[in-house]
Design brief:
about 325 residues, alpha/beta, D-Maltodextrin-Binding Protein, domain 2, 2 domains, 10-stranded mixed beta sheet, 13 helices, globular
């Protein structure tokens, strides 16, 4: 592939990230009474992970406030397993009356984009979008296996260029966004890296801190204990812009223009749910996301409640699927 073709491909891959950054944050703030009239008396929110994890904790806090806002009963049901496909399958077969909602994560896009034959189907047609919920950047860290001079993305890439093929970059699994962030970084920088997938991101962070591997891309909560202990050096966040919760930490995009990979949550409903129900939920969720106590509760983990329109979430899902499909055509992701 010549340089012109490579540049065109890179622009195509980054188009998805650019479209995500154009999300409209105009909130649909209809009256609470109108919203309540459109939603059922009891709603169950399906979480595709086990109880006590990050997504579950955020969802339960949101659910409590949603119940208060609408004056209805809101339940949270954990259905983990099969890379979120157990939860997806359950919601696919649920009634289309607003009684069942799904918390979607990057697994919706990565699973279908990279292993469509194993996915339950195209999430863009299986589910209706309700609202973006929250997002948090991943964090890029370096450990004692790298020289102390590696303090940011530029110096990390310089070391990798000086030591081609030697940089180990750990992540939390072959189909996860941190793995794809690592691959995208190497592709955009045109620097060979060795990506190592762990079953648990926290174990990867421990290995970086112990000097067994060079660097890692993790959820902030996974790396934070080792950062606070002085065993990991934070280099950058992976979102397009700096995190409002960690404003002194640069974004990878300040070195690799357009780089944007973040953990996100969105609320979905079974395809065919009436628009008036979806709109009522959208308005109610967006009111909840303005709760300052909610924002403060999750700020230390880097979580930002974004909210927005139904179309914003649809745009994010579609652009990420396209971005990872394009990356898979250029990089051997070795998905097993």
């Amino acid at each position: 592939m010549n340089l012109k073709q490579r540049a065109a491909t890179r622009r195509t891959i980054l188009a998805g990230a650019a479209s995500v950054t154009a999300l409209s944050l105009a909130l649909t703030l209809s009256a609470a009474g109108t919203a309540q009239a459109q939603v059922p008396d009891t709603v169950t929110i399906i979480v595709p992970f086990g109880a006590g994890g990050g997504v579950d904790t955020v969802t339960r806090a949101v659910a409590d406030r949603l119940a208060q806002d609408l004056g209805v009963t809101v339940l949270v049901d954990n259905r983990p397993g099969a890379s979120t496909m157990i939860a997806q399958t359950y919601v696919m077969g649920a009634p289309t009356d607003g009684t069942v909602l799904l918390v979607g994560t990057p697994s919706l896009s990565t699973g279908f984009a990279l292993t469509p034959e194993a996915a339950v189907g195209d999430p863009r047609t299986l589910f209706d979008t309700v609202t973006p919920m929250a997002q948090q950047p991943y964090i890029l860290t370096a450990g004692p296996a790298l020289p102390e001079s590696v303090t940011d993305v530029a110096s990390l890439l310089d070391w990798a260029r000086e030591n081609p093929g030697e940089l180990d970059l750990v992540n939390s699994g072959p189909l996860t966004a941190p793995r794809l962030a690592a691959e995208l970084m190497g592709y955009m920088a045109e620097v060979p890296m060795v990506t190592i997938s762990y079953q648990a991101g926290s174990q990867g962070a421990l290995d970086v801190a112990a000097g067994r591997v060079h660097a890692g891309i993790n959820q902030i909560v996974e790396a934070l204990p080792q950062i606070e202990a002085g065993n990991l050096r934070p280099l950058a966040v992976t979102s397009l812009n700096r995190s409002p919760n960690y404003p002194d930490l640069p974004a990878v995009s300040e070195t690799l223009e357009g780089f944007d990979v973040a953990s996100w949550n969105g609320v979905f409903a079974p395809a065919g749910t009436p628009d008036e129900v979806l709109d009522a939920y959208n308005a109610a969720f967006n009111r909840v996301f303005q709760d300052e106590s909610l924002r403060e509760m999750f700020a230390p983990a880097g979580t930002e409640f974004v909210g927005g329109s139904r179309e914003d979430l649809a745009t994010r899902l579609d652009s990420e699927i396209q971005r990872w499909e394009n990356l898979a055509q250029e990089v051997d992701l070795a998905i097993e």
